[in-house]
Amino acid sequence: MQPYALTLDRFIDHAAKWHGATEVVTVGGGGHSGRIGYAALRDRSRRLSGAFRALGLRAGDNLGLLAWNSQAHLECWYGALGVGIVCHTLNPRLSPAHLAGMIHQAANRVLVVSADLTALAGTLVQLCPTIDHVVVLEEPGSAAVPPDYDRVTSWLHEDLLARLGAEMAWGGFDENAPAGLCFTSGTTGAPKGVTYTHRSNYLHTVHQLQADASGLTARDSVLVAVPMFHANGWGFPFSGPGVGAKLVLPGRHQDGASLARVINTEGVTVAAGVATVWLGLVDHLDRTGGETPTLRRIMLGGAAVPQALMDRLERRLGALVQTSWGMTELSPLGTTASPTAPVRRAAQSGRPPLGVDLLLTDADGAPLPEQRGQAGRLRVRGASVVERYFGQDAPAVDADGWFDTGDLAIIDADGNVSITGRAKDLIKSGGEWINPMEIEAIVGALPGVAQVAVIARADAKWGERPVLVVEVCQDAKVTDQALLDALRPRVPSWWLPDAIVRLAGMPLAATGKIDKARLRADHG
User: Active site residue: 184, 195, 269, 405, which one?
Assistant: First the structure.
């Protein structure tokens, strides 16, 4: 058979040839939007390849990308990927110190930034002597101005394209070449870099496009509310062009009113993002009485959601909610609930797609003799699973290639995975373990509870004791007694929290998950 390298430029080439007029839409501030067809986007990306080469980047170099979801950001991705430059995505919600550490490790010489992040970029320029060029993206509704940085050349995206853009041939390199660099969120320790290859991301796209996963088609309009700096936007910037679906990129404008407007304006059928985004959408619709009739599915990830929230989203939006589970180290898809499953529960994250394999072990790594109906540590292997972290020689997998996710899980008789907790989140009280996730699931299902977290607090007698942290819905009246009464018949008495902390707003980490590290610092 013919050799055919599985490189990521194939996706945008396919979209340009067979779905050239299908749009990529960028939503900017003030109601402004921009749109471009796949064929025109591919042409601009090929010219950007020449511009990046003119800035001194070569195959294998890491291009720093500090940007929101937009056409310009996507053009930079494909302009870099097509000639073997690695897309190093950076989360602007992290601290400058964290970002500088990642830039230092990646030796970024060129930094691409959204127009509203130039001040942050200026701080990073001072902290990172490797940076020689800053490219500012011009996006709808933004006032992009070339900033004046000491010792660093700054460019506007369009000026760079006009002055240095030169169309270049794509491909011609090994499919196992690095394509992306993404650092973990650091919620379970120091951030670690994960290097994706062209082959791994190509196969991940095949995993995601399976009918029981995202199942996208050319008839879909896909709202990518998950940032592109979160594990490659969960792969949608590849799978959307791969089938010729319309891509809708909302930038940082993800309040309820903005999302409702863009869903209806662009006829969005499938949307992807963390639960807090969609909670804001339904709150807005409840206040205004609006509807989103085109929306058929919402793909949730990032953290488990209470059943009550899943039910509320489906009831208010008239859309099916697909839960999923994954990690940066998995590119990120691990499991997803099938949209055609006869019974779907919020606690279940579904089954793995073809190409991803799962194993439950005990704490020492020995496989459980029975893989169904028993809780164990979840391990994963596959073509889109990390083998070793960026810059590290030691493998991140065992001798048989299994990666320890650090998650605890149960697999039911039908193969559906339920994540039951994080090994590092378990609370050891009097020598016995308490699983915070079980308490969170019960309390989170109560009417009036918006968000919930359980953390450990040091205790002189027991070692650790649980503390319940809750955020209730506006105008809801939920007493402490009601919270404890919900738990009493369902958990051992010694699991009951010693304290209840009420917050007006739950702190969120840079990934949109509840920031348990901050909760422990403030209330632990």
Answer: 184
